[in-house]
Amino acid sequence: xxxxxxxxxxxxxxxxxxxxxxxxxxxxxRARNSEGDHWEAGEIExxxxxxxxxxxxxxxxxxxxxxxxxxxxxxxxxxxEETLETREAVAGPVAEVPDDVVGIRVLYHLKTVEGDYxxxxxxxxxxxxxxxxxxxxxxERAGLLERIEAGMLKRRKVKLKRSLETHQHxxxxxxxxxxxxxxxxxxxxxxxxxxxxxxxxxxRIARRLSDGxxxxxxxxxxxxxIPLQDVRHLYAAMGLVGLVTTYDGSTIKGEERKLKPKDExxxxxxxxxxxxxxxxxxREMD
Length: 286
Hints:
3 domains, Arc Repressor Mutant, subunit A, two-stranded antiparallel sheet, 55% helix
């Protein structure tokens, strides 16, 4: 995950390794001269003290010395920062969002319910649980979500219709201040433009609808060769941001739909169309 927090984390790890270089090298030598499970992974995990005095967990390659491990982190941080700067030049604050557009749906969901855990989020969004776990982890690393202890949640603060209580053994998430600011940004025209720029699949679907008229997820998936479940998530995210809306009406006239020309189409599916602001943004981007 490319984010400012990930870049800062790498640099903090590198600074810590160099600050504690004698300790780190001694731990590496001890691990190399002892048997254990670390040989299977080729790594050891250490808890070190940062230059600021905070504990930090660091994973070290057994085959690299301490200085080399620090250098690799500085190199990765520099490469990630260059990637992030390129993204930010194109997509502004939306650059911090993970590559999986489901992350946008998670942010809006947590805006509504104020606190939830991955299994429940997956159920509410009709998404794979592991996918949601990975997305929540990426959003947290990007600083858009924060973890909360289940015991800190009051029943009236968790607005899930199905929930009768909070579960102490679950990891709950809520929007961070940066996450809330991002959703406010997406409400604006500039945010919608940045969202279009950030996600290539979103642009493809938006252009398809803007040029060809109403379409439904299964046909979009087949024509664009995108998995149907992903298309459904894309349409849902685009709807939340305000780029598409569902077609209003039981019959689609032939002049409205260029994708599959007919005199008229009687709706059997949920059809989507672009909003006026999306059409204008696409013309500006062209």
